[in-house]
Amino acid sequence: MTVYERKDRIGGLLRYGIPNMKLDKKVIDRRISLMEEEGIVFKTGVDVGKDITAGELLKQYDRVVLACGASEPRDINVPGREAKGIYYAVDYLTSVTKSLLDSDFKDGKAVTAKDKHVLVIGGGDTGNDCVGTAIRQGAKSVTQLEMMPKPSEERTAANPWPQWPKVLKTDYGQEEAIAVFGSDPRVYQTTVKEFQKDKSGNVRKAVIVKLEPKKDKKTGRIMMTPVDGTEETIDAQLVLIAAGFLGSQKYVTESFGIAVDGRSNVSTEAGHYETAVPGVFAAGDMHRGQSLVVWAIHEGREAAREVDASLMGYSNL
Ligand SMILES: Cc1cc2nc3c(=O)[nH]c(=O)nc-3n(C[C@H](O)[C@H](O)[C@H](O)COP(=O)(O)OP(=O)(O)OC[C@H]3O[C@@H](n4cnc5c(N)ncnc54)[C@H](O)[C@@H]3O)c2cc1C
């Protein structure tokens, strides 16, 4: 069994994308060395040194499991988007954690929030990691935009136990913002309408606008729609886009010739992991969409069982 990782170290997203203060990388190293002792071979982009085609993999291996994550970020396509200083959240977080792990920040390769007004677009977990990282780098201020309304602090009658509680959560990044700046960084029902840059092309300000829920006449769906006249211009010298993920990356699915659903997640029969291309399986975020580590572990185990059964005719896994 061989695991290929395109980054220079195994566990690409967990190692670099997730901040060190949230996930101690020793946990990843311990797990990898246990697997190496069991005979699993790990190869990084540095070990391989070149692209390997889908055809080469299918020739060399009897089964291929694709577990490439849901790494295609959702963009914010508004005027001024080309300005310098606007990053996707995972690129920003990766630059910081990689610089920390590689050189204790001595290589100067981390994108820094120091002394900057930071705007984080997206109120989810990834946005929260950006808030926490920017504060620890010494940001002057941090604003986090969330397009949806503020959740209620307690369960509503429409959301009784044992349903998952849809209530306001305040994660470590927001708690740190409250401790450092005295207020919650989240601004609800708001998005960006425009980025403004200086003469050198660096982002300096953002025009933000309030949103209200409105029914789309064609589809009948409720859409968050900008409210005219509510525009406001705020300082933003570093912008971090944490607006969600759009599923798997095309270059992988296209090279294997496998189908994806409307959300760009790899299609398989419900509850199964083999794609329509015999011998090619998919698991984790690439299969179910951006999710959680526990689901990735579950999907990995279930896919392994299906691979085992397809090779052996039965499985004890
Ligand atoms: C910033 C951030 C914070 C998060 N925080 C949490 C959290 O606190 N708790 C939680 O449960 N979940 C969290 N998640 C979600 C969690 O990380 C994912 O659900 C989980 O890692 C998915 O696992 P996976 O193995 O499917 O994909 P990933 O972990 O995305 O792994 C895919 C790997 O494949 C590599 N890869 C991609 N394409 C190729 C290729 N063509 N060739 C070789 N290698 C390739 C990538 O570099 C990556 O290392 C977070 C996600 C992000 C982005």
Summed up:
This protein has helices spanning 12-17, 26-37, 45-48, 54-60, 89-103, 125-137, 172-181, 250-256, 285-288, 293-312; strands at 2-5, 41-44, 64-66, 86-88, 117-121, 141-146, 186-188, 190-197, 203-215, 222-226, 232-235, 238-241, 280-282. It has 317 residues and is α/β, with parallel strands linked by helices.
Describe how the helices and strands are arranged.
Blueprint: E1 2-5, H1 12-17, H2 26-37, E2 41-44, H3 45-48, H4 54-60, E3 64-66, E4 86-88, H5 89-103, E5 117-121, H6 125-137, E6 141-146, H7 172-181, E7 186-188, E8 190-197, E9 203-215, E10 222-226, E11 232-235, E12 238-241, H8 250-256, E13 280-282, H9 285-288, H10 293-312
Parallel strand pairs: 1-2, 3-13, 4-12, 5-6, 5-12, 6-7
Antiparallel strand pairs: 8-9, 9-10, 9-11
The protein binds flavin-adenine dinucleotide.
Structural class by SSE content: alpha/beta
User: Strand count, sense and closure of the main sheet?
Assistant: 5 strands, parallel
Gyration radius over CA: 22 Å
Share in helix: 25-40%
What is the name of the CATH class of the largest domain? Answer: Alpha Beta
Q: Total number of helical segments?
A: 10
Could you give me the name of the CATH homologous superfamily of the largest domain? FAD/NAD(P)-binding domain
**Helix/strand order, N-terminal first:** EHHEHHEEHEHEHEEEEEEHEHH
- Global shape: globular
Bound molecules: flavin-adenine dinucleotide
Name the strands of the widest sheet in spatial order: 4-12-5-6-7
Number of strands: 13
Rounded mean pLDDT score = 95
Q: Do you know the CATH architecture of the largest domain?
A: 3-Layer(bba) Sandwich
Enumerate the spans where pLDDT stays under 50 for 5 or more consecutive residues: none
